[in-house]
């Protein structure tokens, strides 16, 4: 069995093409000449973090990395027993009080689960652990094992009442599908209080990216879209982002193993417990929230292109769907913002 984890490579390549650095020569006014550029590579939220910051103040990249690690260990981690999610899971069957911050995230997560008709489901925890796709023992479980766990899966098994959360007995939360997006939201909010920061692009593992503010020369932020079938992690196109936009990609190439010629990857159909095989290789979503971009890319991957369109419309989000026949389907709002870099792919309209 061959096991792959694509994230690190994707992140480094993405970083290389994400930022066009011809900034200084174009800065015409005095204020802009004082802007400094700081880049950093870090490790947080189980992935490589690439940061590029434009500021008249201090280099705050280390602080940003620390904040991401705090979100992971204090809030989202299922392994760190001090995290709020781990505590919630440990007290399934009872009512637990959580922070206002987590209660707010859970409300949006439950709404997205309902809006996607359960395609996105935060209660797949035990099923995800059973597959162990990014762990020590990735393997194909018996259908009977999956069926036994699926009875405890379902977003309706989470009850929210303000800050009080009740998980049904034996139900386990896993927020892996929105964790990096939440990380982007937290950093974006933090930057709004940092008056010296003019712009930033933050890239978590190649799959969650956000652009903040602007570059000193006002040239657009650019983000690469990975070719899901390029084993070198090469990219198939580039998307332009505005400051304030968040981008997330979910794909069957990020974490997977091959067995008997079949690709067992990390995005699961909550109805069956098996990976989603619907002809899609990846979905990239752009919108004005990290949590939603991340959650929507997972949901849209599960739903498939046609059913995903209505969900995207509801959230005012744009998307690029890459399928196994090497088509790139773009929603209307992306048509002028996507540049194809590989002629083995064909661009089509998603709508
Ligand atoms: P990545 O974490 O690589 O950015 P995604 O955002 O698509 O990718 O999230 C995939 C992760 O979400 C999986 O590793 C798993 O933890 C969890 N997950 C898998 N299937 C679902 C699903 N249908 N709904 C919600 N979470 C899921
Ligand atoms: Mg996601």
Brief overview:
The chain contains ten helices and 18 strands.
Question: How would you characterize the overall build of this protein?
Answer:
- The structure is a single chain.
- The protein has 351 residues and is α+β, with helices and mostly antiparallel strands.
- It is 31% helix and 28% strand.
- The protein has ten helices and 18 strands.
- The strands form four sheets. Strands 2-3-7-8-11-14-15-16-18 form a nine-stranded mixed beta sheet, with helices on both faces. A three-stranded antiparallel beta sheet has the order 1-12-13, with no helix packed on it.
- A hairpin with a 3-residue loop joins strand 7 (197-204) and strand 8.
- The longest helix is centred in the first third of the chain and has 16 residues, at 61-76.
- The radius of gyration is 20 Å and the shape is globular.
- The relative contact order is 0.15.
- The protein binds adenosine-5'-diphosphate and magnesium ion (MG).
- Magnesium ion binds next to strand 11 and helix 9.
- Adenosine-5'-diphosphate is lined by residues 120-122, 124, 128, 174, 176-177, 180, 207, 250, 254, 266-268, 270, 294, 297-298, 302.
Lay out the secondary structure.
Elements: E1 2-5, H1 7-18, H2 30-33, E2 36-44, E3 47-55, H3 61-76, H4 84-90, E4 95-97, H5 100-115, H6 125-131, H7 143-150, E5 158-161, E6 164-167, H8 179-192, E7 197-204, E8 208-213, E9 221-226, E10 235-241, E11 246-251, E12 255-259, E13 262-265, E14 280-287, H9 290-303, H10 305-314, E15 318-323, E16 327-330, E17 338-340, E18 346-349
Parallel strand pairs: 16-18
Antiparallel strand pairs: 1-12, 2-3, 3-7, 4-6, 5-6, 7-8, 8-11, 9-10, 10-17, 11-14, 12-13, 14-15, 15-16
This protein binds adenosine-5'-diphosphate and magnesium ion.
